[in-house]
Structure formats: C-alpha cells, structure tokens
Amino acid sequence: MKYADDTYLLVGSSNIQTVAEELRHIEKWANYNNLRRSSTTREMLVKRKCFKGPLIPTVIPGAERVDTMRVLGVTLRSNVKVEYHLDEVLATCASSLYALRILQSHSFPPTALHDVARATTIAHLMYASSAWWGYTGSTYRDRIEGLIRRMKRGGFLTPNSCNAILMLTLQMTIFSKHYGRIQTMYSDACCLLPDKIVNDLTY
Fold first, then answer.
1. pLDDT 10s digits, 3-49
2. 105 and 72 within one domain
3. CA distances in angstroms from 11 to 16, 52, 86, 199, listed in the order given
4. Three-state SS letters, the chain
5. How, if at all, do strands 64-65 and 42-43 pair?
6. Residue 100, pLDDT score
7. Domains held by the chain: number
8. What are the tens digits of pLDDT across the range 65-85?
9. How many CB atoms neighbour CB 194 within 10 A?
C-alpha cells in the first residue's frame, strides 16, 4: 500500500523469504513512476501473545525493528492491541476541549460551536473507528462514552447527540449499504491488478 511518500508492505510468515524481492519491485515501480520513497525503513513483527519461539532477526537489512507503527493516522502495535492508539486519541480529544471552552467564552454561537466540536474532536475520536472498535474493551468504551458525556455537559454537543456506539452503528450502516459494490470492486482488483502491476510498470 502506498500513500504519498510512505509505502507499507504486508508479508505473511509463510512468504517472509520474498520480502527483499518485494521491496526491490516497489522501489523499481516507484522510480519508474517518479514517486518518492521514504529513506527511513521500519519493520514490525506481528505475533500472537502466546508466541514462545526464538527471537526472529531483522528481516529487512538496515531496517529498525519497532513495536508500534503509525499507519494512515492509526497507531498499530505488534500485539494487535489498540490501547496505545486510543490513549493518544483520547488525550488529544481531551486537550481539544480547552480550545472549545475558549470559543465558548468568547460568545461563540452554540450551533456553530456544535459544528466545530463535531468537525474536530468527534471526527478525530471516530476516525477509522470501524477498524479498531471491535478490538476495544469495556474500559476504553466507557472512556469514550465519558468524553462524549463531558462534551454534552459542557455545551459542546447537543444533549440529544448520538453516543459513540450509535455513531459507529451509523457508520457501519452506511458501509453496509455500499458493501456489495465495494466487494465487487475488491474482487475485480484482486483478480486483475496484481498481474497488471507486475507485467506493466506503467499501470
């Protein structure tokens, strides 16, 4: 997956011997299409909690082995836990309440304040939530709900605003509505894109 000058390569344990070849192909493709590739390389080994095998050496020569990696705004950990990401998000959202209080103290119109809160704090809180919500425990869900309750009490959201669970449900409903078309596009891409990319670097 490539986004701007960042490239993410996912390789299963059964194909770990192909990493070097995959990276060479990515670099060749990027150079051919005049795309930048980050000079910093990191690798993260995702393993099960019960894994007791020997320590696997660095797979990519010169790469830095890390336990956390930020991918498109979501912090992933090698143990596939989302607590680290949620701690960061909740801390950022809590600090953004200060900015909302400043707007409120300067007689910012309530309706406009609600719009700002939804466009900033709530948008940041719910970003990519459909991907990480299923990995959260009751403790973090309570913290998310607590933040929304604080925003309602502070007047940053209307009292009848949706809670976090309902917000996520609405997101998933919208996704489900278009799931058939997305599945067809994904199926076509899986069948056609690999061959086109490998055989034609201009694609």
1. 666 777 777 777 777 777 888 887 788 778 777 666 677 888 777 66
2. no
3. 6, 20, 26, 20
4. CEECCEECCCCCHHHHHHHHHHHHHHHHHHHHCCCCCCCCCEECCCCCCCCCCCCCCCCCCCCEECCEEEECCEEEECCCCCHHHHHHHHHHHHHHHHHHHHHHHCCCCHHHHHHHHHHHHHHHHHCCHHHHHHHCCHHHHHHHHHHHHHHHHCCCCCCCCCCHHHHHHHHHHHHHHCHHHHHHHHHHHHHHHHHHHHHCCCC
5. parallel
6. 92
7. 2
8. 777 888 778 888 877 778 888
9. 10
Does some domain include residue 68? yes
Residues across the chain: 203
> What six digits make up the tokens of 131?
């991907």
pTM over 0.85: no
Structure tokens, 172: 């998933």
Rounded to whole angstroms, the Cα distance separating 128 from 73 reads: 9
Quick one: 74 and 91 in the same domain?
no
Q: Are 19 and 11 in contact (CB under 8 A)?
A: yes
Domain end (from 79, 96, 122) = 79
Tell whether the model's pLDDT for residue 203 goes beyond 50. Answer: no
**Same domain assignment for residues 90 and 173:** yes
